[in-house]
Amino acid sequence: MSQTATDPRHLRTPPKRQIRLTWADERVRAIVWQVLIVGAVIGVIWWLVRNTQHNLEVRRIATGFGFLNREAGLPIGEHLIEYTPASTYLRALTVGVLNTLKVAVVGIVLATTLGTVIGIARLSKNWLLSKIAAVYVELIRDVPLLLQLLFWYTILQGLPGPRQALNPVAGVFLSNRGLKLPFLDWQVAHSWALLAFVAGCFATWLYAKAMRRKQMQDGRPRPIWPAALGLLVGLPLVVWSLGGAPTAIDWPELRGFNFRGGMTISPEYFALLIGLTTYTAGFIAEIVRAGILAVPHGQWEAAQALGLRSSTVLRQIVLPQALRVIVPPMTSQYLNLTKNSSLAVAIGYQDIVSIANTTLNQTGQAIEGIAIIMAVYLTISLSISFFMNWYNSRIALVER
Amino acid sequence: MSDIPLNTSVAGVPEAAPRQPPALTTGPIAWFRANLFSSWLNTAVTLVLAYFIVRYAISFVDWAFINAIWSVDNNQTQACRALKNSATPGACWAVITEKHRFILFGTYPYEEHWRPALVCLLFTALYVVSAMRRFWRWELAVVWAVTLTAIGILMWGGVFGLSYVPQERWGGLPITLILATFGLAFAFPLAILVALGRRSSMPAIRVLCIAYVELIRGVPLISLLFMASVMFPLFLPEGLNIDKLLRAQVAVILFAGAYLAEVVRGGLQALPKGQYEAAEALGLSYWQKTGFIILPQALRLVIPPLVNTFIGFFKDTSLVLIIGIFDLLTAGKTAIVEPAWQGFGVEVYIAISVIYFIYCFAMSRYSQNLEAELNRHRNR
Amino acid sequence: MTMQPLRRTTFGLLGAVAITALGALPAAAQAPAAGGASILDAIKARGTLVCGVNTGLAGFAQPDSQGVWRGFDVEYCRAISAAIFGDPNKVRYVPTTAQSRFTALQSGEVDVLARNTTWTLSRDTSLGLDFGGVNFYDGQGFMVKTSTGVKTAKELNGATICVQPGTTTEQNLTDWARANNVQFTPVVIERLEELVSAYASGRCDAYTTDVSGLAATRSSQPNPAEHTILPDVISKEPLGPLLRHGDQRFADLVRWVHYALVAAEEFGITQANVAQMAANDTRPEVQRMLGKNGGLGQMLGVPNEWAVNVIRATGNYGEIFARHLQPIGIQRGPNALWTTPGGQQYAMPFR
To answer: Which residues does the UniProt record annotate as the domain Solute-binding protein family 3/N-terminal (chain C) (predicted)?
Structure first.
């Protein structure tokens, strides 16, 4: 909407004139054009809907979302919430959405980290390092993601079977069944400790804000870390001890066909995660590099001349300015990563597209299936956009 | 800088005689020192990286060239399989030797393969000619029209003594090039209209354009392709139906249109207000103003991001794999369905990657150079 | 100064695009006519049969290195084409995926779907489709690595099982697992070659699909003896060519092309001797089938020598089977003629 406000045609306030019903009147023309175009669009949509209704009737395809409450009967390998083939389609689709979010969120975090490292490596004074980073970026960006995913999945399948699993550290097994890690035997106390940690994060943030305000008043910096340590580590520890301090760890072990116990990262998820991370990191690296290069060198020099430490220069002077350049394109990379996670369907990770796809295949209700896929992605995309726009406006340059 | 003479004497370079004080700020040795060994940390990084590069490069060369099998007779792939599981594994390029024509041209009649081959060359030549600024004239439009017509004639045939080849038999690289090129060619005018509509003063049109752009950009291409493949036939009246490639093409156009519209809008926004005001002051109508003043300048600004978006589509056309259209990637995957050739996916994927890489790399290099060239007036 | 050429460029590009748009319109109009009263008449008018096949399944439908479609299902397309036109090559093959196959058929994009589709009640009725006989009796089974020592499917409790999503296979598997209290972890991959490579690499303990598919996969492995197909068959999978409602005459033709292929094997008519049989055989039913008398072809709406054309093009059912399915390790089993024990392939009388 902001662009319309800056549009020069809106800056003039047109003089009040009476509308004359002639073609020469600009406003009449505008109204006629709009009515015509909107009418045409509605007409086309009406035509399509009528065709669709007719076709659905002729082909006796059921409509509506009633199937959501029917038994799905489709097996799902990875689910964050309880799921059996006897569950409903609604639950199956919810599992799919959660799986999509699982890969998107972790992918975004990893891609940002890797991308930043590579972007900085490209600016390194070490020729070899910067060249390797450059070659990486070119290679990754010029090959289709789908091809890369298939490639990674093929590579992961080449790992040994569960009986000959690689065992680099005790309790960690890497095989073609995925990565097996020991994991806490989850108790109620762990949930409480996690909750305490989240509360600690929030409290730390409030504390840091209050200290910053005080610093603004008298100019003396105050250390935040002692309180932060207490809130972030101490508080969860105390809560955990109060809960009986359970320490049982669930170790993976080979039983029957597969490993039992512990935490599993399946090859499908792993391949998708590696593919999405490395691919998006190639783009993020370029964004980070451009962002850092966009900060004029004079800023570094001026800050150093003021006697600031180089870590302070980076944190307080360079990064805030670079972020302004970095955040908008980064938003679209996050959106791309989320949308690209739909390629999971090619390598058998059961995300929302894969499950909705199977659903529409079993029920024959293509329109509903695709509508669900689109609605889910639109919701995710809009949420990311809103969050990043809010963040962007926070760090934006406040002019005049 | 005091350690420079010390280091060079260690390296035993004769030029570093004590009589040459500001030794070596140029030349290979100095370059090495400045770029690879400037500090102990840098040296460590260099050495570690060099070790890994050498190690993996050697095993890759072993696998890809030294131990590789380049061809086998009569689909007898036992040697390849033995090699794959041996202590010194090697690539089985025989799969490419045997299947390269299928991967490149799909199910196109075998004896007519020169036609799709020529089509690929024509497309490539078209890209090259369009990329050269000295050909940026209206005659280029004629060249495009003639080339695309020639491509249509070559692919379909049925005239000039060429046999007719139905669209179902097309496949491989030409499909990838057709989807990408036609996708851009049709999406571009659509994008211009939508970008103008999004900045229009008419609220209804603005809302329509915003809804279109945000809706398309909010969903993955796959969902549009699914829509084209399973939903689109339901939209049409009975009896009328459009073939699968064309439906996928429409999905690609709609998708590309939304993204290009945002690129064009970026160009429109970057123009100084004075240009709009000056044009209005001259009394030009909306279309005169847009056509003669605004668009020529705005489009010039967005050529580099346009090329980058095109690279994106070029890669994204590989997604038609999921709806079963025989593009380059699908053809490659189908080539390894035959029992004798199952299990040589890595070789096929590498070969296909090389083709995609050549096209995308050339385009991305071109866009970088063009950007530098167009921005030259700014670097005073 | 730079404005002039740039403006011309813009309009040049727009012009090019407009011309291209006009040029491509005929492409849109190329769409095959569908629906309407008679599919058979539409095929005759068009001069080609449009046949939906798999995107690539060894033995059934798969393009060879020269891009020519080959396989069991493909032979049925060729046979129908030969019956209508006397020429087996007037076929356009449209590769279809598991999702798009029914839409393609319903919308008229293809005339017939020869693509291992299981005959089920809901497909026959609510999807508005018709089955043109059963050309392949199949059932769902499991394949495991011999080294696991598994002897029956019930021992698969706790196993990871590879399965293709969105097919009856997937639903059969869950039904069976629930009925037998078997817990399993699924690995579902849409593309078949990807799924098979997942099983072969050991990602899954077992691979489930139709037994014919298992046999084909097994024979294509470097060492087939390392894989065992379990004796349990958990479902019935009658596969056949699929048509849409609307033209019973075309459905009749497809059905009788299949019966002709089966009957030809029964009567000992082969690709090699069909011309001679048509001329000399004295059995009345053979004479009727091969068009010497009775006018059966006319009743079907095709030339009387239709069956001769079919058999000359593809051979009889047994020959097709031997050409495409036996090399990949599929035995006749239930698909043997009804005259052999256990065989179920049975042709209706040509009268």
So the answer is: 48-277
CB C102 within 8 A of CB C115: no
Average pLDDT over residues B337-357: 84
Classified as helix, coil or strand, A258 is strand
The rounded average pLDDT for each run of 10 residues, N- to C-terminus, in chain A (400 residues) is: 52 63 74 87 89 79 79 81 84 91 92 91 85 90 90 83 75 80 76 86 87 83 80 83 75 71 82 93 90 84 85 80 83 89 87 87 81 91 84 70
Looking at beta carbons, which residues of chain C come within 8 Å of B134?
A: none
Note whether C39-137+240-334 and C138-236 share their fold.
Answer: yes
Residue C184: per-residue pLDDT: 87
Under 8 Å between Cβ of C314 and C80: no
> B324–C96: do the CB atoms touch at under 8 Å?
yes
CATH of domain A89-158+275-395: 1.10.3720.10
Question: What's the topology of domain B111-379?
Answer: MetI-like fold (1.10.3720)
**Chain A nearest CA to C162, separation (Å):** 10
β-strand C237-244 against C136-138: which pairing, if any? antiparallel
Interface test with B, best of C6, C55, C70, C227 (most B CBs within 10 A): C55
Q: Which residue of C has its CA nearest to B103?
A: C65
Burial of A225 (0-12, 13-18, 19+ CB in 10 A): exposed
CATH 3.40.190.10: does it fit domain C138-236? yes
**Computed from CA positions of residues C240, C241, C246, C247, in that sequence, does the dihedral angle turn out positive or negative?**
negative
* Domain range C39-137+240-334, its CATH number among 3.40.190.10, 3.30.70.270, 3.40.1000.10, 3.90.1530.30: 3.40.190.10
Q: Where are the domains of chain B?
A: 111-379
Residue with the bigger pLDDT between C21 and B283: it is B283
Tell me which residues of chain C, numbers 78 to 137, contact chain B at a CB-CB cutoff of 8 Å: 92-97, 99-100, 103-104, 106-109
Nearest Cβ partner for B49 among A132, A340, A370: A132
Widest distance between CA atoms in chain C = 92
For B113-125, the pLDDT digits (tens) are 888 899 999 999 9
**Cβ-nearest to A75 among C127, C159, C174:** C174
Nearest chain B residue to A341, by CA: B220
Question: Using the beta-carbon criterion (under 8 Å), do A37 and B360 form an inter-chain contact?
Answer: no
Q: Does B315 touch chain C (CB under 8 A)?
A: no
Confidence of residue B377 (pLDDT cuts 50, 70, 90): low
Please state the domain extents for chain A: 26-61, 89-158+275-395, 186-247
- Please tell me if residue B145 touches chain C, with a CB cutoff of 8 Å: yes
Chain C residues within an 8 Å CB radius of A257: 148, 156, 158-160, 205
Tens-digit pLDDT profile for residues B208-263: 888 898 889 888 998 898 888 888 888 887 667 677 888 889 999 999 999 888 88
Domain-wise residue ranges, chain C: 39-137+240-334, 138-236
